[in-house]
Write a structure and sequence with these properties.
CATH superfamily of the largest domain in chain B: Glutamyl-tRNA reductase, N-terminal domain
Helix content of chain A: over 70%
Structural class of chain A: mainly alpha
Strand content of chain A: under 5%
Number of helices of chain A: 9
Oligomer: heterodimer
Number of helices of chain B: 18
CATH topology of the largest domain in chain B: Beta Polymerase, domain 2
Helix content of chain B: 40-55%
Distance between the termini of chain A: 18 Å
Shape of chain A: globular
Number of strands of chain B: 10
Shape of chain B: elongated
Number of domains of chain B: 3
Radius of gyration of chain A: 19 Å
Largest sheet of chain A: none
Number of strands of chain A: 0
Distance between the termini of chain B: 21 Å
Number of domains of chain A: 2
Radius of gyration of chain B: 32 Å
Order of helices and strands of chain A: HHHHHHHHH
Largest interface: A-B, 18 and 22 residues
Largest sheet of chain B: 6 strands, parallel
Order of helices and strands of chain B: HHEHHEEHHEHHHHEHEHEHEHEEHHHH
CATH class of the largest domain in chain B: Alpha Beta
């Protein structure tokens, strides 16, 4: 287990370093190596997640250590897949360190889960968690792309250009990429939430129980729904869309972590430590 | 090429006379260092750094004049091969000659005669380069390191064109052919391995580059040209090359607008329609003589909602400006005026100069390589290389045979076998060696040396 964690972190860090070099020395080969290293990290990470899954008999989200690890795994997986459709090499510089950081934090947390509720050993929970995590990974990338959009927009607007101007793609590409991330993320989160409601109905007999996590998920969902609606109807795009996807991700982070630390609820055990 | 060399021999029968070595030619050629008939590379020229524009205009050659000049140079006994490059910034006469001084003199005389100008009036502006220096110079020129705007791409095409004329006239021979091919190769390498041509260094091109950073692709982007002017029209042409969408043209005089619109296959619109058009165009190029702003912030702000906030890019080339700079503060709207574009260019030029240093290294390397080939045109190294090649082959075969079918031979018998192969090689090489050493091939010697090296693949490349 420790070996798998170390290998994962090692490859994620190597990939980060490679992408950093790529940032300075713009050679395509470097970004390909960075991608390959990340894929190698993902391989070890998959073994790690698979191992934890087999040991507990259910999706490994029984403490913060496992939850962060799984979230990191979806982030990497999403980037590896997303890169095919949107070949935005510099995004690796966001994905690799993000995954590395999540894994490092995860590794420093207590690893043994206390108890495993039987109600969580259902395929519904697996589906619920995986789909939501993929959606959240997509929204994490929407935030990353949004930041890069703001950097590039600033460079063009203030006419300063400079280091990133050369290296970043066009505003239009960044905007479209961010939009694609939000659409994917929003769809996944919606499906995930619905599956959660259905599962809650079968276990507790009600769809909605005013659990803080539910409330905040609802707020987050509404936030992205408004963002998408405004984009389609009045054309909230570019700068405003970028800022909103960053704020949206902060709301998401709070829903993901903050709720569990500050508030109580039936999602609590996923992030205990 | 061979043809040409023969032809020059015929037209200039007396040329190699001065170079032939008295006494036993074969014997002499072996100890003499540079081959008796080896041609030297000489370049005489002037460029924007050495000659003021009036002089450059005066000494420049049109296509026909250049052709006539080639013809005339071919008739000059001192000039064996010649390529003439003439652009608005430079004249370069590249020659291969047995006697550089005479060739330079001939070139100068021709310039003076054809341009009706005394030599002393333009002599100060000329540079005369020989050997490696000339090779390096032509490499640098083609790689656009010597250009007024470093990295501009036209010069390579111009040299190619000049070389084409020379080959049609058959005025270039084995040395210049090789040199020019190497030149094109080096220029291509510099372009692909350094960022020397990466960044825009003209106003219109800088605007296009910015547009691509905003829109990604310029395909199907609608353009509005307000006013007219060389730079603005050039920018529109660039946009068309990037397959932009409809071009709208607005001009104070509608007639002129229609004229321009026809040229760009676009549509003319009235001046008062401009604010309304902003709803569907993406790129606005403005270049009018108006004294005040043509568009203000509120006019643009009004259309943003209708555009669903799709980005708008204003290129303001006019002085005084046409587009209120306040417009730049609107979301998803970008305004660049001529000073902004000039800043872009300046940055890009700095970048190019940095890349130029890397290009120089590539060129140094190429000069050394070319020198290697050039020196191989000497008689002695070629003969030695040829002999060595034969000996290597023979030795290899003898060993194989001795190891297998003739393994029973005694030492004396083996020695006899070796003596026999040595004798064979000597006999085979006797005539070719004599031929190459001899002045028999006169001015065309480098051709035969080159052929020999190619025929027997003596250059490992």
């Amino acid at each position: 287990m420790t070996f798998l964690i170390i290998m994962t972190i090692l490859f994620y860090i190597l990939s980060t370093a490679e992408y950093l070099v790529y940032l300075f020395v713009q050679r395509d080969r470097l970004s390909k190596i960075g991608y390959a290293l990340l894929a190698a990290g993902f391989f070890w990470h998959t073994l790690l997640v698979g191992y934890a899954f087999l040991r507990s008999g259910s999706i490994p989200v029984h403490n913060l250590h496992q939850t962060l690890s799984l979230a990191g795994w979806t982030v990497t997986g999403f980037f590896l897949a997303f890169h095919y459709r949107y070949p935005f090499k510099l995004l690796g510089l966001y994905a690799a360190p993000l995954a590395a950081t999540m894994m490092i934090i995860s590794a420093r947390l207590p690893m043994e889960p206390d108890r495993i509720q039987d109600s969580l050993k259902s395929i519904w929970v697996v589906f619920h968690v995986v789909v939501i995590f993929i959606g959240e990974a997509a929204l994490a990338f929407a935030c990353g792309v949004g930041i890069l959009y703001l950097v590039q927009e600033h460079a063009i607007k203030t006419k300063k250009r400079g280091f990133f101007y050369r290296r970043l793609p066009s505003l239009e590409f960044l905007d479209n990429t961010g939009y694609a991330c939000i659409i994917t993320g929003f769809t996944m989160v919606t499906i995930g939430l619905i599956s959660g409601f259905l599962y809650a109905k079968t276990v507790w007999g009600r769809f909605w129980s005013w659990d803080p996590k539910e409330v905040w998920s609802g707020i987050m969902w509404l936030f992205y729904a408004v963002l998408l609606h405004e984009r389609l109807m009045v054309g909230w795009r570019g700068r405003r869309s970028a800022i909103m996807s960053i704020i949206g991700f902060l709301v998401l982070m709070f829903t993901f972590l903050g709720v569990n630390f500050l508030l109580q609820g039936h999602h609590g055990e996923f992030t205990q430590w | 090429m061979v043809n040409h060399a023969l032809q020059t021999d015929i037209t200039e029968p007396g040329r190699s006379k001065g170079d032939s070595v008295p006494g036993h030619p074969a014997r002499k050629a072996l100890d003499s260092t540079p081959g008796a008939a080896r041609l030297k590379i000489v370049l005489i020229g002037m460029n924007h750094k050495t000659a003021e524009v009036e002089l450059r205009e005066c000494l420049g050659f049109s296509h026909e004049e250049a052709d006539a000049a080639l013809q005339s140079f071919q008739d000059a006994p001192a000039i064996a091969e010649v390529v003439l490059v003439s652009t608005c910034n430079r004249v370069e006469i590249l020659m291969a000659t047995p006697s550089p001084e005479a060739a330079v003199e001939a070139a100068k005389t021709y310039l003076a005669r054809s341009k009706a100008l005394e030599v002393k009036h333009f002599e100060h502006a000329l540079y005369i380069l020989e050997g490696d220096d000339a090779v390096r110079h032509i490499f640098r020129v083609a790689a656009s390191l010597d250009s007024m705007v470093v990295g501009e791409p036209q010069i390579l095409g111009q040299i190619k064109e000049a070389y084409r004329s020379a080959t049609l006239r058959k005025s270039s021979g084995v040395i210049l052919n090789r040199l020019l091919h190497k030149t094109f190769f080096v220029a291509k390498r510099v372009r692909s391995e350094t960022g020397i041509g990466d960044h825009a260094v003209s106003i219109s091109y800088a605007a296009i580059e910015l547009g691509r950073k905003i829109f990604g692709t310029l395909e199907e982007k609608k353009v509005l040209l307000i006013g007219a002017g060389e730079m603005a029209e050039l920018a529109v042409e660039h946009l068309i090359r990037h397959r932009s969408g409809t071009i709208f043209v607005a001009n104070r005089t509608f007639e002129r607008g229609v004229e321009l619109a026809d040229r760009f296959n676009g549509r003319a619109i009235g001046f008062e329609e401009i604010p309304d058009r902003l709803k569907d165009v993406d790129i606005i190029i403005s270049s009018t003589g108006a004294s005040g702003f043509i568009l203000n912030r509120n006019q643009v702000k009004g259309v943003l909602r209708a555009r669903k906030n799709r980005p708008l890019f204003f290129i303001d080339i006019a002085v005084p400006r046409d587009i209120d700079p306040e417009i730049n503060r609107l979301s998803n709207v970008y305004v660049y005026d001529i000073d902004d574009l000039k800043d872009v260019i300046e940055e890009n030029i700095e970048d190019r100069n940095r890349e130029a240093a890397r290009a120089e290294r590539i060129i140094d390397e190429a000069v050394i390589r070319f020198r290697g080939w050039y020196q191989s045109l000497d008689v002695v190294p070629t003969i030695v290389a040829l002999r060595e090649k034969m000996l290597t082959i023979a030795e290899g075969e003898i060993r194989k045979t001795l190891a297998h079918s003739l393994s029973h031979l005694s030492n004396e018998e083996t020695a006899a076998l070796r003596r026999m192969t040595d004798a064979l090689i000597n006999k085979i090489l006797h005539d070719p060696t004599l031929f190459l050493k001899n002045d028999g091939c006169r001015g065309g010697k480098s051709v035969y040396l080159d052929v020999t090296r190619k025929l027997f693949k003596l250059d490992e490349e």
